């Protein structure tokens, strides 16, 4: 084993791997092999005879966890699979299931995701007669989550608010209190509870703490800079006995402070563990020198950071460049045009490309463009799929079958499909239930007594009977069977079929997709019960989706990109107000976090990094006029930014002289920024070639031959198309990414492999097609 180590690790990495006993911190920049050290360290421990069950490794995303597991299994086939590598949430969910009886928790508990959580908060606000305008749903839901991240109960929150005379806090604490009661009644926990309940179980039951401390002799935490207080305490408790704790992280990659992450957890590690060994890693194995220096140039603008030395021996065979678009569709198409020839030309696989954006909503344009260009892609992260109403409905049925006292699910589907049970009937019943301290389900037999009319009473009874009829299947049948039965017997599918619109057809397709997903679950997992399925889904929903990125371009938010790497990375929407987002530019702390996010994004790239921005963008249906993000200039593209700015002004002037109906308003994305939104017909941007098929792009695996290229429908007979690879006697090989004019006047913008852009007059440029 030692041989394997020295062959695959540098001396600092080897030192960290061999230091198995006592606290160890690896504080190092991106791509220096921190995660690699963790996996090798686990493999090394197992090779020493340490039982896999006594090793615990925690990380932040399911994707990172499964990747790590795979690497360990590759290193130590067989035993490697038995180590506990998981996310914090997933570990705690298992812990609570296993120890439910000891900590008076019903083991059938449900896990509420953020949408469920908001629904409960909404109920609480209404019930407490609180002004919904002053106490915004998401602000309160967020405040509750942050309190849980800090291990604060409703009474802690109330006491703090009272101490500081904070009326908002006092009200929020009231809502929080009722929220907890409602969760208890529904036998549900939210994500914050998973960690908080685990911590309090360990703190209150010394036997439990002893047991788990003894069990996990070696603990490792990746991305430690992003742990919040609750996670920090959890790790501290578990590591309290053996103190064999290894944490790795990078302060420059701390991007979750909005979720309660506390960078001091990493900075204070040596205070917490005075005898801790510290290892520094400085060699980056991931990126080209150009990417590395550009990323460092950006992050250097942050004041609050520990400066690190970072170097690489990697060859300088890539580039960093700026890609400018006229609007968001153009941005997506330009990117698709760059991906296509590379991937179909077999230079890269689709999975070698990633597109990162700041907000989830940006994924849609890429999805559309990629579909058009027949580029296989996967959207990681938001689980758009499970967020869809029809999927949520079916899931609510399943949750209700599992636990009829789940009020949120009950209310969601009681009248879907329509059963003639009105809102008022449900509210009456709910009031009664609350008064009697029971669930809505339990109050159904009293429906008539509380004044509901015959119709709704009958409908309610047949609905509860419908759910009850699943009780036998629930315990012995397959989840797939239950799901199919729910979809057909509830009348849900029928209603969609009768509707027969394009929207309802998509819904039916999604429901069919859900059945395949359930089927997949049954074949893959050992726990095939309904409870097992629901837990699995709740955990996946939290942060990322299952790994399905093979052979597909990855679309994800920058936050989810942490820890991953790709040959080609596009960071999109680099515009002031979008990235840095909103008003963060006006707040030093927030701006520095945005900049760290930029650093995370940039350091994912191995070879080519594209910084993309668009002069216009539709935001909530309004066209916004953009300034390039300051991060573009910070990355060393000042001239380009200035040139772009000049072009922007020019094109703006042109547009004005073309006589747009312009009512210029201040506003747009942020206070005091140079944004203008236009009350005008959206500017029809010059989008070159939106029809990908016209280039003869082939489906995955296919190859393009020149003969297969069809002529551009506009009648342009020149051989120069967007995406065409060309060679220039001085600048070398490149690709056409923009063109304008025709005939003798045909101008081309060529992106050369060196990363340079050149605008060339085709007639005299002496280009050859390659
Ligand atoms: P991040 O900060 O982005 O999480 P990291 O420090 O965890 O990065 P890794 O993902 O472990 O870095 O490593 C980055 C890349 O470098 C990986 O592809 C890894 O396999 C490779 N690598 C790390 N160390 C070595 C080494 N000694 N020899 C060869 N490749 C290495
Ligand atoms: Mg890592």
Key attributes of the depicted protein:
single chain, 770 residues, alpha/beta, Rossmann fold, Arc Repressor Mutant, subunit A, 5 domains, six-stranded parallel beta sheet, 14% strand, binds adenosine-5'-triphosphate, binds magnesium ion, DNA 3'-5' helicase, DExx_box_DNA_helicase_dom_sf, ATP-binding, isomerase
Walkthrough of the structure:
- By secondary structure, this protein is of the alpha/beta class.
- The protein has five domains: 1-103 and 194-283, 3-Layer(aba) Sandwich (Rossmann fold); 110-186, Arc Repressor Mutant, subunit A; 319-384 and 545-635, Rossmann fold (3-Layer(aba) Sandwich), CATH 3.40.50.300; 385-539, PCRA, domain 4, CATH 1.10.486; 724-769.
- 46% of the residues lie in helices and 14% in strands.
- The protein contains 32 helices and 23 strands.
- The strands form five sheets. A six-stranded parallel sheet has the order 3-2-6-7-1-8. It has a six-stranded parallel sheet with strand order 9-14-13-10-12-11, sandwiched between helices.
- α3 packs across α4, α6 packs across α7 (137-149) and α19 (389-402) crosses α20.
- It is globular and about 90 Å long.
- The model is unreliable at 541-550 and 655-714 (pLDDT under 50).
- The protein binds adenosine-5'-triphosphate and magnesium ion.
- Residues 8-10, 13, 30-36, 250, 253, 285-286, 563, 565, 603 line the site of adenosine-5'-triphosphate.
- Adenosine-5'-triphosphate (ATP) binds next to α3.
